[in-house]
Give the backbone structure.
Amino acid sequence: MKSDHLVRVGVLGAGAWARAAHLPGYRRDPRCRIVAIADTLVDRARIPLALANGSELVERDDIDLVDVCTPSHTHFELAWAALEAGKHVLCEKPVAYDFRDTLRARDLARRKGVKTKVGLTFRYSPAMRYMRELVAGGFIGRPFIFNGYEQNSQWLDPMNPLRQVDPDADQSILQVSSLEGYGAPIIDLAHLLVGSDLTQVVGTMRNFIPERMVRATGRMMRMNIDDGDIFLGEFASGALCSVQTSFVTVGNYPGIEARVFGSNGALICRLVEEAGICETLRAATPDRVEFRELDVPAWCYPPGGSRHESWRTLFYANLISSFIGEIVNGGEANEGDFGDGAWVQEVINAVERSFRERRWVSLPMDD
Ligand SMILES: NC(=O)c1ccc[n+]([C@@H]2O[C@H](COP(=O)([O-])OP(=O)(O)OC[C@H]3O[C@@H](n4cnc5c(N)ncnc54)[C@H](O)[C@@H]3O)[C@@H](O)[C@H]2O)c1
């Protein structure tokens, strides 16, 4: 793409997350402009061009980038249609429930010569960016152990209806929920920070809150979903990890913590909004074992950004800026693409299998 050309963006879905994170991100980046927004509830789409029909948006020839920010069961079909139409695609996670579908979409993007990005929000937080830089520069030496958490109390109250559940699902079977919705970004960070692929996982899931309000019916019903889960993993490098996700554990948003311990040092990054601050990074070394807070350098922040800003706009501004830069600059650079999304989804699929079959599961999954 020519660098003097503004990236023209079409957004699918004008719900809570699009308004809180995606749209402010595009408005902050002078290299792009929003051309159209489509939502089946067309009143939500408003400006600049409001459409009710996603296909109409995808087919327009004045759009370069399609952003899929709709409920998760619609992601794959919409992303696939946008790729078929030759658009760059940003898609909220998961691209698909089965990692093999995400791989097919990655391959379609390659054939079409377009770039993809998954909404793996937390790898773009300024503090996490700096943590990645420190790890790559050898600060911790060889990674031994990664501990990851994504947890908060968003759905501890059963009267707060979950948006994306299937009320017709077989309630005798525990359905994957937190592991997928909350697990994806922290699994992605494990991959990035350890710098190796997982070879084995074993995990378990639980349903702690049995009945919930269903938005569609306005009534309480049995909802056998995983609202908390834990797994262990072994990496090809020899490193180990533990990962815990839950949306019924008391604590504030977004609730990410990534700890990595290596041969020369340790880093702990917390993305939890507390006392008006949304991220902290702390470090220890063998000669200074008391963890101390590090200053995150200015280059990690989007223009005008600071750790006092809302995590939603701060982290997503970096994500959007990363994608627009990758499109404008051309070349191979494309971090957090559908290939990375497929890797994350394969781990989720393997942990689910481990739970159902009560055993360790090998990766890559070979069936
Ligand atoms: N990456 C993150 O940190 C993060 C955080 C929150 C939400 N999300 C994801 O963002 C996505 C949207 O979540 P939300 O909270 O905004 O949901 P929401 O229900 O508030 O909004 C979804 C919108 O999509 C519209 N829609 C549904 N089907 C459509 C279609 N086929 N074409 C066009 N519009 C359609 C709905 O009318 C609604 O306005 C979900 O996949 C969610 O998991 C990601």
Observations:
- The first helix runs from residue 16 to 28.
- Residues 236 and 289 are 28 Å apart (CA to CA).
